[in-house]
UniProtKB/TrEMBL annotation:
Belongs to the aldehyde dehydrogenase family. It comes from the Bacteria. Pfam families: Aldedh. Keywords: NADP. Residues 2-450 form the Aldehyde dehydrogenase domain. This is NAD-dependent succinate-semialdehyde dehydrogenase. It comes from Stakelama flava.
Amino acid sequence: MFERVNPATGEKLDAIAEMDDAAVEATLARAQSTFREWRVSSLDTRTALLGRLADAFEADKRRLAEIATREMGKTLKSSIAEVEKCAAAFRHYAEHGPSFLEGEDVAVSKGSARTRWLPLGPVLAVMPWNFPYWQVVRFMAPAIMAGNVGLLKHASITQGVAAALEEMVKKAGGPDGLFQNLAIKSDAVEKVIADKRVVAVTLTGSEGAGAKVAETAGKHLKKVVLELGGSDPFIVMPSADIDKAAEQAVTARIQNTGQSCICGKRMIVHADVYDAFAAKFFEAMKAVKAGDPMDEESDMGPLSSFDQRDTVLDQLGRMKKAGATLEFGGEKLDSPGAYMSAGVLTGVPRNADVAREEVFGPVAMLFRVTDIDDAIALANDIPYGLGSSVWTNDSGEQDRFERDIAAGMTAVNQMLASAPEAPFGGVKLSGYGRELGPWGMYEFMNMKTVMLPG
């Protein structure tokens, strides 16, 4: 059983039954059967479905958002924004998908050749709880457009969202079996990946989960895309707009109660502007209001679970033990929910193991650096390489950061955010492969070469 608990109150919502072997088998059989039909469906059929999905998400955004907020605690306003972003992704692929699937003529020495993009089959998505709709839709929308079918293994705490996603595809007129929720736990994933009907896997989650999925997929020679953790640098140089940088740094750190892979976690600030930045950053972080996620006045809700809050508190304890100073915040709040206050750590030893971990909560690490070389060295001194944000109005510095920061994405003078149009993914232990744009669609397609006589 999946027990759902509201992290804002500690109240048990309900329990959802886990699929047995027979139900999993029936789900896989439907996926395979539906793929035979969907792979040859017209582009007009696919784009029309995506358009209806966009309309359905917009029309039902309040109900969908409330499910996510009750299950994992993000503020209702951010849940609504997430659902709206999903609708935009459906529209993006409906509008641009047909052009993404156009083949190309290829010059060859004899005769002629061209390429065709063809679907592969049922793709399994193993998804996390932090953006429970968006993480799924950025796989679902291109998969549907490509002619694939989707299987979702969602996080245990967001099974209500998982059921709602399957329901929405059916309501929009998607054929039975096009997108199905696999209500299984992690220990059942290996068997599904091994099943010959599943052709590929995409996972967003922890480094450990990614390694296990990649090992199983590799054993069975199946394609896998991994979007794993990140401890993104947020670098501020002397030429930056300090007021804007400090404001955006707060948003980056408390968005989704600090539970976002790509928002700045390590604030790396040049010595010349460190004091000015710190003063503004501290003041704004101290003003962050944690409270009822259904309340419009709350800046952030609880963490997703009591276990997640305890994990963050343990990390803070180890940082302090290593010599860091907790300037303020980072404490449990007197509440029945999984709340903690926003906080800032300074003086974190660069060589401490815990300084290289991802802190998935509303606490920032603040570092002082001497120059751009020092900033880049510190930014790269972690095992991850997902995103980064750099603040500078010096074109030479901007070029250095774009070239030398080891990350899949760099935002300049803004907080990093994903967009349906742009490739999303990382390097190093942050995973491999890309989502979104045409690149995300191509990850799970066969680029077939067709050789023709002259």
